[in-house]
Design a protein that fits this description.
The protein has about 160 residues and is mainly alpha-helical. The protein has two domains: about 120 residues, Orthogonal Bundle (Hypothetical protein af1432); about 35 residues, no CATH class. It has a two-stranded antiparallel ribbon with strand order 1-2. Helix 1 runs parallel beside helix 3 and helix 6 crosses helix 7. The radius of gyration is 16 Å and the shape is globular.
Amino acid sequence: MGSSIWKAIEFAEKKHKGQLDDEGKDYFEAHIEHVVKILYNVTKDPDIICAGYLHDTLEDTDTTYEELVEEFNERVANLVLECTHEGKKDEYGYYFPHLKTRDGIMIKFADRLNNISRMSAWDDKRQAQYLRKSKFWKDGSDKPMDDAEELYIESLQG
């Protein structure tokens, strides 16, 4: 493992220290490390791996874009920025206006895949909204959000 990756691990562990996920588990161990494990299955690019470790630092810690450029490099900082939501959550979720590149989308997919695999602590409405927002294909269920959520909740109940 390169020195930049070790640096990203240490940086992310420090920034996320004390944070817990929705199940009360250490956030770095329960989420960040798993996102990177997913990424390692598809790339060994050190900037992408670094950005995987750092992907939540802009939205969940006091880290700044400038700090990421200074500590790592502009490409890593830009990839983290791509994965960072902006604005407030609305009925459709958060928006990612910078998410444009293949590498940024790869990181975001790894993030979403890990979130989907560990969302059992979420209520049904939050799960339905997250799954709906995660879909990028049309399957005929593209009804207004409330109807789609009701269909999903009904499917959970059997």
